[in-house]
Design goal:
Helices cover about 25% and strands about 40% of the residues. By secondary structure, the chain is α+β, with helices and mostly antiparallel strands. The strands form two sheets. Strands 1, 2, 3, 4, 5, 6, 9 and 10 form an eight-stranded antiparallel β-sheet that branches. Strand 4 and strand 5 form a beta hairpin.
Length: about 170
């Protein structure tokens, strides 16, 4: 893996996040979790390259982000699409998702959690967090569509991209 600056990413991140999906990983080598996500953003805020992710409090990964203030985003490519079925449908509380998905974890010196199988990875440090609230939606149909019976409201994490890894 080589490191590049966030401004050197040539992939269409809207396409990657929305179509290919990503793994959000958080924790420490002795205890961590990963989850599939297809909601998120990458951009520039507060004079920093940032990634924004949305995680429901009931997700096991949520506690790891809260505890460490860090998370990693791994983009695996279409050839590893089946990984998202395991990472998105099962809980790390009950299952060793890494083993079941056939992933091989890599840990950075600064706390990032990635996988040998990834082609692009973003290591992130949380700068800001806030909870999504029903009363703040200007289009109330979104509340019913995305939160009616699907679980709690997401917490939004805006994080500085500290390192980008490219295979």
């Amino acid at each position: 893996m080589k490191t590049i600056a966030p401004t050197e990413i040539t992939d269409n991140l809207i396409d990657l996040i929305g179509r290919e999906w990503m793994l959000i990983s958080a924790g420490r080598p002795e205890g961590f979790n990963l989850m599939t996500a297809s909601w998120g953003e990458v951009g520039y805020l507060w004079n920093r390259s940032v990634a924004t992710v949305f995680v429901r409090p009931e997700r096991y990964t949520f506690g790891f982000i809260e505890k460490t203030g860090r998370f990693s985003l791994s983009f695996l490519g279409e050839e590893h699409r089946a990984v998202h079925g395991v990472a998105g449908a099962k809980s790390g509380r009950d299952t060793d998702k890494v083993a079941e998905a056939g992933l091989h974890p890599l840990f950075t010196e600064t706390g990032g959690i990635f996988y040998e199988e990834m082609r692009l990875g973003l290591e992130c440090r949380v700068l800001y967090a806030d909870d999504i609230e029903a009363s703040k939606f200007l289009d109330p149909t979104l509340v019913e569509e995305w939160y009616g019976t699907k679980g709690g409201f997401h917490r939004m994490y805006v994080a500085e991209i500290t390192t980008v890894y490219l295979k």
